[in-house]
Amino acid sequence: MTLIINDKNVCPFCGAYWNTSGYCCNGHPNTAKGTSPLNPVKIIEEIKEDIEKAKEYDRGVIISVAEAELIISCMENLFPDNCEICKGQNGGIRGNENVVNDKTVCDYCS
What we know:
Blueprint: H1 40-57, H2 65-78, E1 98-100, E2 103-105
Antiparallel strand pairs: 1-2
């Protein structure tokens, strides 16, 4: 039996298949479908700004610094790690990469 792979249905950056959201499992946008790229830093900054606005708007609703940091930490963990070998497909933890032979790799690839 021969398996035919449709190479047009994969991300050109990492080779992962496209999700219905318009992104691959590593967060790369499907620009052919018009999906805009995710910017994790921008998303986190917007969350921080929204938290500050909420604090100013209603003094009765105050989010502690610890809660805000927990939210941001959880958001950062949603994005794939920066492994140069698997491009985040192996499920490594973002920020826990290692440098081996001048390459940034996850625990699974090191």
